[in-house]
Structure prediction request, 166 residues.
Amino acid sequence: METLWDTIQGVGAIVGLATGLFVLWDRVFRFSPTAIVVVRPLLPGGMPKGTYLQISNPSDRPIIVSWRAGMRPNEFSIAEDHQTRSIVAALLEGGRSTVIDPASHRELLLLKPSNVDVIDPDNTIECEIYWRYAQPKIWKRDRRLSVAISKRSMMILDPDDYGALD
Prediction:
């Protein structure tokens, strides 16, 4: 009888731990935005391609996404769109931000790093964005979301801009 009770306690402890981990995952990670690098034609059916950072907001609240503007080695610069004003603002030092509505996504234009020609194909090109809820309930600080892709992958996705593989 004692062994049976110990077994029931062990199973209960495991179930309690699993429940706690699920609640933690649900509250912290489930509604966190995701960001990926995508390459799309500038116009539907067009040949010239643009590289974009697609940020998805799965939550039911709007988020504010911000990033550091400026040109840095091995880092993409981020522009809000193809307008000249947005591209110039992305190249100048400073901070930029935009809002992503609930349950939607936004594509931000990625500009090549200044040293793209000397980056080894096995190295990564990256960018960092920071996000927070527009009306935070508990966590009020910005959270970091880092996106990285190898130059080799970029050469396959967009050989016109990043050079073809030899």
